[in-house]
Every structure is written in structure tokens, then in C-alpha cells.
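Possible regression after last week's pipeline update?

I re-ran a chain I had predicted before the update to compare outputs. Posting the input and the new output here so someone can diff against the archived version. Not blocking, just want to make sure nothing changed silently.
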Amino acid sequence: MRVRIYRDKQIRLDALRGKVCGVIGFGSQGHAHALNLRDNGFNVVVGLRRNSKRRRVARAHHLPVLDLPEAVERSDIIFLALPDTTMPGVFRRQIAPHFRIGQALLFAHGFTVVYKTVVPPPTVDIIMVAPKGLGQMVRREFVAGRGVPALVAVEHDFTGQARAIAFAWAKAIGCARAGVIETTFREETETDLFGEQAVLCGGTTALIHTAFETLVRAGYAPELAYFECLHELKFIVDMIHEVGIAGMRDLISDTAKWGDLTVGPRIVDQQVTKNMRAALEKIRSGEFAREFIREMETGQRRYHALLQRGRRQPIEKTGQRLRALMNWRKNK
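New output (post-update):
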């Protein structure tokens, strides 16, 4: 199924005209959306806790900063730029009691809505604009006159303007310069979780660890294993990002190509495919979300234990020593 890609000229900004855009949080996505909206001429307020260190940062950018309840009351469109783990509590205590009929509630990720850790009232629009890049990239590309692609979705259209608002917001933060794709909250959430688990984070880190340990146990120096299994991964990923997988193959050696084509499928084999399908089913059934939410709500002991175990892996010590030799990294 091919999707339609919307560009700048196909999207109108009328749905944002005269509206107050409230950005709750001023972290990675929050700061990018707030500044891009402001630079495009829209009325922006930032909502932060009274003791938040980000208040000083937002004010340094000449943005008005309000307490959370006042920001919600003042805004027509409310962007919840908060982590999935802290959003439910903040929403219940400081945001939900201050809604008025006809506001729009905007998310950058569908997790809390899909798994109902946040339950907005039926009298507001529920929409999503999810840039496919970190907030720093959203801001940097906007300033450069370019944009980061984004997904948009409507979960609930109370006013009849929800879709227009979502698309206008995506254009106002610069994403329509690259392209905007319409999806659903559930589709965005499930594909995002699966990508993180199977490839971007879980799959990649497990593959690196396993390859490193295989070489070291076979008697090779940890330093060589680090370079071959972790350090050089960036160069390959950069090429794939720029020119695709086939384009990457055009740029590597014949031996690397032959190993890629003949050995890769034997490592990532049918058993890996079965494991990926099982992971996807856990996501689609809600089992992963329930497990994650339960862990977050019951002390996070296993979560922190797993993080600490990862920090103690031999590859981390080897990497620290080798990265200290790379002076060019200090210039970034």
C-alpha cells in the first residue's frame, strides 16, 4: 500500500491563525516545536513546572513561560511534549482539570493514547504530529530552510477541524518542507515500538554485543573486535541513510558485498524472523505496554538492573579507552 505524501504547497495554515499554541515541556521536541512555531509568526506559550530548570532556557529564547494549569487554560492547541513515563501523572494532576471545550490536544507519539495511560475528555480534539527525527534535528533543519518528515494522525475529531490543525502544525514546524504522511495513532505506535525493539535499539545492540563476544572468545583482541563490530557501524549506517542499502553496496568492497549477500541471511535467519513476529505480536496485543507500564509503576528495579548490567559489559570498557584516543570526536 502506497501512502500519499503531502508537501508545503498542499497544506494551509489557516487552522492555526489566531490560535494560542501551548507547548507543555521544553525538552527535545518541545523546544523545537515552540521555536519553529514562534519563528513562523504564531502565538506560543510554554508550560513548565515552577521548579523546572527549563524555565530559564525558554525565557532566554524570549518565550512566555507559564505554570502548567495557566498554560492549558490560555491555549487553544496543547502539545504534550513530555516523556511517556511522566505524562500520565502530570496530565491527571495539572492538565486534565483545566481543559475547556473545543481545545486540541496534540502528541508527538501515540503510546499514551493507544494504551490509555492518558485519557482525554471527549470534548477536545486528539491529534498527533510525529517528526521522524530528534528535536535538535527538527530545529536545525528548520533554521536551514529545510525540514524533517513527519507523520500526522487524528484520534478524535470533536470540532471538525482536527485534521486541518494537525496538518497546519506539521507545516508550521517545517515538516511539510520534507513531506507529511497521514497515519493512525495505533499504526504509528506499533511500528515505532517494533522498530526500536527489532532494529534501531534492541536488535542493533544485541547484534553488536554478540559479535564482539564471539570475536573475543575466539581469542581476538577486544580492541579489534570493538573497531569491527561497533566503531565502523556508523560508516555503514551513514551510507545506508544517504543512499539506501543497494547504494551502500555500491560503495563497499567486493568481499564486503559477498559477505553481506551470502552470510548475512544465515545470521539473521528464519528463527530471527520468528522472534521478530513474536515481538510484534506482543506489541499489537498490548502485552509489551502492560509489562512496561507495570515496571514503571512498581519501582523500576528490573529496568535499572538491566541498565547497570549493560554498563558493566566488557565492550563498554574497551570503548571508553578507544574513544578517548579519537581527538576528532572532541570537536563535535
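Follow-up from reviewer: compared with the archived run. The CA atoms of residues 302 and 308 lie 10 Å apart. Marking as no regression found.
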